[in-house]
Design a protein that fits this description.
single chain, 372 residues, mainly alpha, 3-stranded antiparallel beta sheet, 65% helix
Length: 372
Amino acid sequence: MKWKEPTFGATPMLKALTTSNAHRKAKAFDLVAEQKKQKLNYPDWAQSWLRKYKEDWYIAQANGDEVGMRKAQKLAEGLRSKLREMATMPKWAQEQMQKETVRWMTAEASGNIMEKLAAEKAGRALREKLGLIDASTKVPSPSDDTKKTEDVKSLNTQKTNEIETVKGDKSSFSTVAEFKKKYGDVIKKIGAELNVDPNILGAVVLVESGGSGFENGKLKIRFEVHHFVKQSTSLFSFGRPRSKGHKYRESAGLPWKEVHTKDQSSEYGALDLAITQNEEKAYSAISMGLTQIMGFNHKALGYKSAKEMFQKFSTGHEEQIRGFVSFIKHKNLIKALQKEDFNAFVSAYNGKGNVEQYTKKLRKNIILYRNS
C-alpha cells in the first residue's frame, strides 16, 4: 500500500485565523499617514469603511483571490473619490451624499443590487439638483428688479420645459408614424446637414431600433460579458460561441444568473457588478440606446469615455440619434447614404452576412417612414 500525501482545505479554524489576522492588520493600518498621502480628510464613518475594505483585501490576499483583492481596492478608491466630490459640496448636500454613499456600500456588502441602484439614483438626483443651483447663480443680475424677476421666471420656465422634453424623449414608440411625429424634425435637420434624404436616415434608425432606447425611463442596455472579460472568471462566464451563454454572480459561492433575459434588471445587475471591478471597462462592454452602439465606440461618437456616452445617451432619444449619426460618419458611411448605395452601407455597417435581407428591410422602412 502506497503512502498518499494528505491534502487539506481551508478549515473553519484556518478561516477564522485568516480573518482575525486580516482584522488585526486593518486595525493597525495607518490611516493618518494615508490621509496625508492622499491629501484627503477621512471622517469617522469613512474610516470604518476603509478599514473594512482593507480587511477584505488582506483576506483575499491570504487566499490568493486576485479578483477579491481588485474589488476591495476598487471599492476603497471609489470611496476616496466620493469624499473628494463631497468636499466641494455645501454642508447640506454633504450630509445627503454621505447617507446615500453609506446606503450604497451597505447594499454592496449584502449583495442587494436593487438597493444599490436606488442609492445611485438618489446620488444622481442630488448632483443634478446641485447643477441646477449652480446654473441659477450664474444668471446675470440686472439693476432693474423687475427685469431680474422676469429673467428668473424665464429661466425657471426654460428649465421646466427642458425637464419635460427629457421625460417625453424617454418614452417608447409603437409605430413608424409615432416615431416620425416625435423625432421627424430632428432627423430632417440632421439630414439637411449631411445632405442625406431624411427618409433614408429615419429608416436606418428604425431598422436598428428595438422600439425605444429606454425601458421604464431607464437607458436600454445589453451587457456583453465577452467584451468585459477575455475568458470566464469566478464571477463572469460565457459559452461557445463567446456571444452566447452569458452569466454572472456576485460571489464565487452563489448560483449563476443569466445576463440576457427579457428583463433589463439582469443587464444592469451584471453592469453594476462589473463597475466594482473596472468602471470604464464595464461601460465599454455595454450596447446602448436606440441603435445599441457599444460603449467602446465612445471616441467615434465624440465622448471622452464610455461612461460619458452612457450618461449622455441617458438624457434622451435625440442625443442617441445624433450619436448614431456621429458613428456612421466615423465609419465613412455618409456617402453611401447620399448615393443611396444601400448594399455598400449594409456591408460596411453590419458585415457581409445577410446583406440582402437587411437591405430589403431598410428599403421597406424608407417607404414606411416616407408615407407616415
